[in-house]
Amino acid sequence: MNQAGVKRKRAGKGQEVVPNKKQKTAPKRNVSNISDSEEESTSEEEESEEESSEDEEPLTAPRRNKAGEFLFQDHPKFRPNLSPEELFRLGSFGGTYWRPIYSTVTNTNYKNVHKQYPENWFKGLEKKGKNWLTLPWNRYDKSVNKYRVQVGSTLEAWEEKAWISEHNPYGWVHWYCDFFLGKRGPDDARQIKRWSGLASKNGRFRKWLMTLIINKNGEWNAHRISPKIRQTLQHWAYRLTKKDFETEKKKRGLV
After folding, report:
1. What is the pLDDT of residue 128?
2. Residue 171's closest CA among 2, 38, 19?
3. Which of 37, 48, 158, 225 could form a cystine bridge with 163, CB 3.0-4.6 A?
4. Are strands 70-71 and 16-17 parallel, antiparallel or unpaired?
5. CA 236, CA 239: separation in Å to the nearest integer?
6. DSSP sequence for 5-43
7. Distance CA 51, CA 212 (A)
8. What Cα–Cα distance (Å) separates residue 107 from each residue in 14, 145, 169?
9. What's the rounded Cα separation, in Å, for the pair 153 and 155?
10. How confident is the model at residue 179 (pLDDT cuts 50, 70, 90)?
11. DSSP assignment, residue 47?
């Protein structure tokens, strides 16, 4: 049992994993209140994070700073600005992320894994006429996505590139859901490094998006400018804000 009370059931090879029970509470924030204001990273972002020890105080739920970033006391450089709930409520993965899968990494079938997380995260997202969670991959629905575009690869492609670990067979967001609730494990440093290389202040997708906006003399929230990069960043728990864009323009000497 982890610090947030999430119980993960291990299965033998060829067996199926089904969560034991739902969690009832979690850090919650309405998407409407979000502030609007894979592998490379810079040397600054690659600095190793300090690992927590048994002598440290118990981890608390992440809090948001004034910029809307989540702060994790044991990994201060990891600062996504979307919670797992917000990520899915905005519309992500074409509604397919938590579909039943067979993992070639663990040789196990999985289904309903999202039901081990707090009910409020996904309430209303999986019902008749609206399924934003468990559509099969061949029914990927880009209209579900915030920016109405299809991005991402199949699970099989991720597994072939060795991006999937046995700890979180669905991938990065699976890991992030656990991490957000206080679970810590041996894959944390790798997963945070992946996020840093893509969505941190020096992450290549985040900087690429801002470069495209600047080159087109656009506004930070002009969604017509590279919706695919915006959707990809959302899948990594980041959404560009006015503050981040203005900070980058100052850094480049453009204001």
Report:
1. 83
2. 38
3. 158
4. unpaired
5. 9
6. --------TT-EE--S--B-------GGGS--------T
7. 36
8. 6, 30, 10
9. 7
10. very high
11. S
| CA 153 – CA 91 distance, rounded (Å) | 17
Amino acid at 197: G
Question: Are 234 and 70 within 8 A, CB to CB?
Answer: no
Q: Is residue 21 part of a domain?
A: yes
The boundaries of the domain holding residue 152 are: 16-27+61-200
Instruction: Give a yes or no: residue 149 inside a domain.
Output: yes
pTM: 0.80
pLDDT in tens, 111-166: 999 999 999 999 999 988 899 999 999 999 999 999 999 999 999 999 999 999 99
In a domain, 52, yes or no: no
Q: How many CB atoms lie within 10 A of CB 155?
A: 22
The amino acid that residue 242 corresponds to is K
| Residue 161 CB partners (closer than 8 Å, separation 6+) | none
Letter for the amino acid at 217? N
**Count of domains for the chain:** 1
Q: How far is it, in rounded angstroms, from Cα 40 to Cα 198?
A: 7
> 113: which 2 tokens?
């894994």
Single-letter code of the amino acid located at 187 = D
Tens of pLDDT along 63-98?
Answer: 999 999 999 999 999 999 999 999 999 999 999 999
Residue 212 in contact with residue 219, Cβ under 8 Å?
no
Question: Which among 9, 20, 26 has a CA at the least distance from the CA of 177?
Answer: 26
Q: What count of residues does the chain have? A: 255
Dist. CA 60–CA 233, nearest whole Å:
26
Quick: pLDDT tens for 15-53: 566 565 444 444 444 443 443 334 433 334 444 343 433
